[in-house]
Amino acid sequence: MAEITRAETVLTEDGVSLWAVRTGEGCPVVFCHGGPGLWDTLEDVAGPLSGVAAVHRWDQRGCGRSQRTGPYSMARTMADLDAVRRHFGLSDMVLLGHSWGAQLALRYTLDHPEHVRGLIYVAGTGIDPGAPWRDEYGRNLRARLGGDLERWSELNDKERTDAEDRELSVLQWTADFADHGQDHEDRGQDRDQDHGQDHSWAREQAERMATPWLGVNFACNAAINAEGRRTWGAPELHARCAASDVPVLIVDGAEDIRPRWAVDSLERALPRVSRVVLEGAGHLPWTEDPDGFQAAVRAFLTA
Questions:
Q1: What is the mean predicted confidence (pLDDT) over 164-179?
Q2: Do you know which SUPFAM superfamilies this protein is assigned to (predicted)?
């Protein structure tokens, strides 16, 4: 019988309501989803961990099922994460952050090590200043989009309806899955002959992420990304990582269009770190190598 989950409302100290849900039993793990401006799409990660982890998922402020109210900043989102921790009565926890959520989880770990027993840093983009990975990411995104590039560019450069926001997001998320090649032909899907990508399978995964469609909060995205461009990668961040005593697992998909070398500086800075690179996987490695991803996470949680 499938586990019945009941959504809960976390109330922040400034009166904003956040959507949250708890599933499974075991080591307390709090997920931090990507974005900024998106919502939790990590249910597929939570399910297989139910035997070893009590997983707590939530939608960040202004996103998804949470109240669409600012302000939007790293500090405010960290305070909201702490409100989630307190709501569920956790004295400490493991944090699992994906993409932008990995940056959030890292920053919370540095600020509140007394509440973090471990950090699982999935598909993040490191701690270098100035986000040097962005140019390569842009080139990789356009190459991976292949025949969808023209439509993506058209949508990206115009004012959009809500339906067009969804279409743009699905196209962009399709590129987050790896170029599968011959080993995925048994899916019975047609592959783009120019780029080798199993577009129909990747599109199916992106459509799942966008269903139900909860709407991107572009104001949240713009505010937090602008803050990150001003502040991320300062020498103090490297020093604080080097001084951290929290164990960290970095998990990468080798075919992520965000270059994996961007994470090297974080790996070098952390004194208690292990890293698993999953070949043939992209930005959502649990989707394309579920066995490898779950083995790495379970080993970390049970160590």
A1: 95
A2: alpha/beta-Hydrolases
